[in-house]
Amino acid sequence: MQVSCRLNYSVSKLQGNIVLKKFVLIFTFVIVGCANPADETVEALNTLEFQPGTMSPATNSSPDELKSLHSTNQQVIANLTTEIKAARVDHLRSVDVFDNRYGIDNVFQALTRLEEFDELNNIYLKDNNKDGLVKINKALKPITEKTS
Asked: Do 43 and 92 share a domain, yes or no?
């Protein structure tokens, strides 16, 4: 009788563990499913290491090539900005702006980084700095590949 009681206790404990494991697994999938792709973009932008370079010596770059690089960078910056705003800012209430529970400060930081990249992109075009334009493109490319 004592063996039977221990066996029943062990079986019910095992079943309880299985139910708990299933719950944890399902909960994990729900949380991952609710993750916003824009959050990954925000995190990637905020952790991006980028040091603006100095003016490099003029290379044999045509104005068309520079404008093409500039235009590509502008499009990438605009797409990332639109994606982040649509996912995290467009439906924001004014009371949420200063509420850190929503992580909105990280979103605004990422949008500021994009504005900085856009301004730097314009400066590099004005200075005919092909290396700078290429550097911006290379820095943003991994982020755009994640969101595609």
From this structure: yes
Average pLDDT of the chain to the nearest whole number: 81
Structure tokens at 33: 């499913």
Residues 82-93: pLDDT tens digits?
999 998 888 888
Number of domains in the chain: 2
Most distant CA pair in the chain, distance: 92
What is 86-135 written as a DSSP string? IIIITT--GGGTT-GGGTHHHHHHHHHHHHHHHHHHHHHHHTT-HHHHHH
State whether 60 and 85 are in the same domain: yes
User: Average pLDDT in the 100-108 region?
Assistant: 83
